[in-house]
Amino acid sequence: MADKVPALKYTQLFINNEFVDSASGKKFPVINPATGQKIAEVSEGDKADVDKAVAAAKAAFKRGSVWREMDASARAKLMNKLADLIERDAKQIANLLTLEGGKLFYGSFYEATSSATTLRYYAGWCDKITGKTIPTDGPYFTYTRKEPIGVVGQIIPWNFPLGMAMWKWGPALATGCTIVLKPAEQTPLATLHVAALAKEAGFPDGVINVIPGYGPTAGAAISSHPDITKVAFTGSTEVGKIIMEAAAKSNLKKISLELGGKSPLIVLDDVNVDEAVQIAHDAIFVNQGQVCCAGTRTFVHESIYDEFVQKSKAKAEARKIGDPFDVTVQHGPQIDDEIFERVMSYIKSGKEQGARVECGGERYGDKGYFVKPTVFSNVTDEMKIAREEIFGPVQSIIKFKTLEEVIERANNTTYGLASGILTNDINSALTVANALEAGSVWINCYNALQSSTPFGGYKMSGIGRDCGEESLEEYLEVKTVSVKLPMKS
Ligand code: NAI
Ligand code: MG
User: Fold this and answer.
1) What is the model's pLDDT at position 232?
2) Does one domain contain both 95 and 186?
3) Which ligand gives the minimal distance to the CA of 337?
């Protein structure tokens, strides 16, 4: 594995286009979750460093600055250049993502290349952000301008470190904002590499700043900063609430939150069972179940329930576990010991509350944070494993009888991020699609996410949207300009 480990060139904070130590001089360890071994010491940003980064981002955003004066088409060129460089370094970036996050190498490679796709998608928007002319009563000519909101803070999780960062850089750069981003403490390395690429692409000083560090220190400094006018967050619902409160208590900065989920995938009795089992399996086990929109509640019609459970069990048992750099491996480790323990405690509670472990349910190996792919049958709605976000490789298969009943039960959650329905009946599919309280509904597929499709949550799964045209609005202010015209014109 050693030959796949790139030289770790970038382990400092990235402020004003320079890599620098933190003000405190402190560093924190980054651990390889597949082995539990330390792979790097990274500079630990704190309030003082966030202040410095915000000052740089503010100067970069100032009226008359290079960035503010830049043509939108030139901004697009820079974004496309950064996308080119990410593609050039995709293998190196993928190595970093796998090393720090335990993600399967091919998943990491896809994350790198799809991050370039996201930047290209948003580069296309740069010169297409338009206001309106509005018919008004009286002798007025009225139009609106869409203006960048200013210095934005972005707080990123560890499950798709680069993917989530680019979902947030894309609209921020397309609209002309400047950025202070904090990666998750577990996964700063790939993002720092891409920060170096942003400098190479030619982004002006201060437009992009990256401050690795912990949530309650660096993260809190971002969410309560008086000069940050918008904060975008992806992570737990618990921290989403803290960020909303910090935004309210500081300067009422605009927020967008992409939070947890407990997404239902409904399988009707007219499906090809083998195909449905595969879709449901991928919906939960991709990325070791560490996906906010994972299909964690597999609702299966009673007439195919037993067959579905047996086939799901066989598929989960066959999943090859091991070194995420090995391209034949399908299942890597959880991100860290804390998340590992959390997943194991949910498995324990499932057993205690009477669900049946069809397979898995225990640790794999004696190093790293591997959890065997786990399938529970006989799961009922009130069990903890059916109500709370586990964020691990745990499938709960739940029985239902009628469409009306399953719609009610699928919606009986505080979350509303994603959902799916597998059926060949168009009427059932569209009835469910309309009825589910969720930001995404996937029909006969799952995780069909793209940079062009808005993604976000109903209810406690969040506020606002990532991706698509919708995400641009999160980074824009609307200004109304009214001009009084001469009376007889
Ligand atoms: P978390 O929400 O604590 O961490 C996500 C990001 O928020 C990290 O960058 C972290 O440093 C930052 N953060 C933490 N506390 C903060 C604070 N007080 N102020 C500002 N920023 C703060 O998530 P964690 O602890 O890594 O995972 C816990 C659970 O959260 C998971 O088991 C899962 O259920 C959920 N989660 C959901 C994600 C999603 O994609 N929606 C991603 C990661 C976790
Ligand atoms: Mg946390």
Assistant:
1) 98
2) yes
3) 1
Is residue 219 one of the residues assigned to a domain?
yes
Q: Tell me: do 221 and 87 sit in the same domain.
A: yes
Residue 185 CA to ligand 2 centre (angstroms): 10
| Cα gap 421→264, rounded to integer Å | 8
- CATH number of the CATH domain containing 372: 3.40.309.10
pLDDT at position 3 is 44
Kindly report the pTM of this predicted structure: 0.98
Q: Is 143 in the pocket of ligand 1 (CB under 6 A)?
A: no
| From 44, 100, 185, 292, active-site residue | 292
Per the DSSP assignment, residues forming a β-bridge with 395 are 375
Known catalytic residue at 292:
yes
Statement to judge: residues 248 and 344 lie in one domain: no
Close Cβ partners of 456 (under 8 Å, ≥ 6 residues apart): 256, 258, 417, 439, 462, 463, 464, 465, 466, 470
Q: How many CB atoms lie within 10 A of CB 239?
A: 20
pLDDT tens figures, 319-336: 999 999 999 999 999 999
210 lines ligand 1 (CB under 6 A): no
Mutate to test the pocket of ligand 1, among 236, 237, 241, 284 (most ligand atoms within 8 A of CB): 236
Name the residue type at position 456: G
**Sequence-separated (6 or more) residues with CB below 8 Å from residue 310:** none
Rounded average pLDDT over 183-208? 98
Whether pLDDT at 306 is above 70:
yes
Q: Which domain holds residue 359?
A: 264-450
- Using the structure block, give the residue that is written with the tokens 């992806």: 234
Contact 266, 409 (CB under 8 A): no
User: 195 and 50 share a domain?
Assistant: yes
Question: Atom 14 in ligand 1: which residue has the minimum CA distance?
Answer: 215
Residues 195 and 326 in one domain: no
Pair 51, 149 in one domain = yes
Q: What is the CATH number of the domain that holds 163?
A: 3.40.605.10
Q: Is 470 annotated as catalytic?
A: no
